């Protein structure tokens, strides 16, 4: 089947079998390997991307459901000049160790900051509850999201 | 995943028609947070998967003549953000918030949560405590049943293979009814309920009126605790009686013993959660 969708602002088309998940579509058709295959059952959040601005587990959507919709992956955040404030603050604080959870973590945080520019610590924790990190723990991740929120409020 | 055919009807009417034509070789995909996991791990893949997740008729939350109508395709996130739910059934917001994590709530639908019919579903108890009903559409028309009549067993409902659950109705008499939901899981995020519970009640002349108690994850389906309800109905508000109702509720459940928690621990939780939800609902109620 053919699917037309927007990925990181660009119109794309793919011919894929119906049983292809969004995650597989991104990784194997478009070589966007930022979204990771972790548990593949919606527990770990490593495959998180934004669909029409909402964080979803891309392993739990069929590519056919994406017809006409807009997907944002971690590859869409930075440009040649600069990182996204979330990426910068994750780097500055050393929030990630192996980095496997990073793309999902950052995209979950991005949805949060777009809806709520001044989140409390608890709201940040709630937003990333579906993203598991097994290396560093969550303290520096939560701090980086709070710092990025502050930075984005100051220079929108 | 094994191959299947994917179809996406563009209206409820065409979904019903296709369902009539293709059943039982078709399965319905809504939010997919449960069904996609199934599809990946089962050899029993249907010939066709029908995506109804974006059907406009299954969306929306509206005030209707007989109460509040919630489209079956409404996501848990949409429930959490809806002003009508906030006004008339705020306990549902709390219940929706306990489901999975943001990613699950952005995709998962309330209708899907109900028809998947796992005993620990977090949408169930509050809706049961509010006397919710569901509209089911098939090729012969629409039928309305009480939500408790939808639940048959673990992952089993009274839906026929050619029928679609389209709407949840919270009856007018339950709108604004003081209610509370409580979930106890091993963690706050991404955890199944060991026990969940909801209670709703009015207070009339200092006495319990139309008390409803519902518990989940401790019987084959979400149940109403009819004995505990009957024990308190019409009685004066009294902390000791509420505590006793919690103990009675335990006798109405049949919790399992598994790696998450023992049966006796779950029994203790039932008593505590039932007591807490009733007390919380009392706090919300007008005491005339």
Helix-strand pattern of chain A, N to C? EEHEEEHHHH
Q: What would CATH call the class of the largest domain in chain A?
A: Alpha Beta
- Radius of gyration of chain A (CA) equals 15 Å
CATH class call of the largest domain in chain B: Alpha Beta
Structural class of chain A: alpha+beta
Task: Count up the domains of chain B.
Answer: 3
CATH topology-level name of the largest domain in chain B = Uridine Diphospho-n-acetylenolpyruvylglucosamine Reductase, domain 3
* Oligomeric state: heterodimer
CATH architecture of the largest domain in chain B: 2-Layer Sandwich
Query: What is the CA–CA distance across the termini of chain A?
Result: 41 Å
Tally of helical runs of chain A: 5
DSSP summary, beta strand count of chain B: 14
The shape of chain A, in one word, is globular
Biggest interchain interface, per-side counts: A-B, 30 and 29 residues
| Number of helices, where a helix is a run of at least 4 consecutive DSSP H or I residues of chain B | 12
Which strand order do you get reading across the main beta sheet of chain B? 4-5-10-6-7
Number of strands of chain A: 5
Number of domains of chain A: 2
General shape of chain B: globular
| Name of the CATH superfamily of the largest domain in chain A | Beta-grasp domain
Q: Which residues of chain A form runs of ≥5 with pLDDT under 50?
A: none
């Amino acid at each position: 089947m053919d699917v037309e969708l927007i990925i990181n602002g660009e119109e794309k088309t793919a011919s894929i079998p119906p049983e292809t998940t969004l995650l597989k579509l991104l990784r194997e058709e478009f070589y966007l390997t930022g979204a990771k295959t972790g548990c593949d059952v919606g527990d770990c959040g490593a495959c998180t991307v934004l669909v029409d601005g909402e964080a979803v587990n891309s392993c739990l959507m069929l590519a056919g459901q994406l017809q006409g919709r807009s997907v944002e992956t971690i590859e869409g955040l930075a440009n040649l000049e600069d990182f996204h404030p979330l990426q910068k603050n994750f780097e500055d604080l050393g929030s990630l160790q192996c980095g496997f959870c990073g793309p999902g973590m950052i995209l979950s945080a991005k949805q949060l900051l777009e809806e709520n520019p001044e989140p409390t610590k608890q709201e940040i924790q709630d937003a990333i509850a579906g993203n598991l990190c097994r290396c560093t723990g969550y303290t520096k991740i939560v701090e980086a999201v709070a710092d990025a929120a502050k930075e984005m409020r100051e220079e929108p | 995943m094994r191959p299947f055919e994917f179809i996406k009807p563009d209206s409820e009417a065409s979904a019903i028609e296709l369902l009539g034509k293709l059943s039982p070789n078709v399965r319905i995909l809504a939010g997919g947070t449960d069904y996609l996991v199934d599809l990946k791990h089962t050899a029993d893949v249907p010939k066709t998967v029908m995506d109804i997740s974006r059907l406009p008729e299954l969306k929306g939350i509206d005030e209707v003549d007989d109460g509040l109508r919630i489209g079956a395709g409404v996501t848990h996130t949409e429930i959490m953000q809806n002003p009508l739910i906030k006004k008339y059934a705020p306990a549902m917001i709390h219940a929706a918030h306990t489901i999975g994590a943001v990613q699950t709530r952005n995709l998962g639908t309330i209708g899907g949560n109900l028809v998947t019919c796992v005993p620990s579903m977090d949408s169930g108890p509050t809706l049961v405590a509010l006397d919710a009903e569901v509209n089911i559409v098939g090729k012969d028309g629409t039928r309305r049943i009480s939500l408790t009549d939808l639940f048959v067993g673990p992952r089993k409902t009274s839906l026929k293979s050619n029928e679609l659950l389209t709407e949840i109705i919270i009856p007018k008499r339950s709108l604004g009814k003081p209610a509370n939901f409580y979930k106890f899981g091993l963690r706050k995020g991404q955890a199944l309920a060991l026990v969940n519970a909801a209670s709703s009640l009015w207070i009339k002349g200092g006495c319990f009126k139309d008390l409803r108690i519902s518990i989940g994850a401790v019987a084959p389906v979400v149940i109403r605790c009819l004995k505990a309800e009957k024990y308190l109905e019409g009685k004066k508000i009294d902390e000791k009686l509420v505590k006793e109702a919690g103990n009675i509720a335990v006798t109405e459940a049949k919790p399992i013993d598994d790696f998450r928690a023992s049966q006796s621990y779950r029994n203790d939780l039932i008593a505590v959660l039932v007591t807490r939800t009733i007390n919380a609902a009392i706090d919300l109620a007008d005491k005339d």
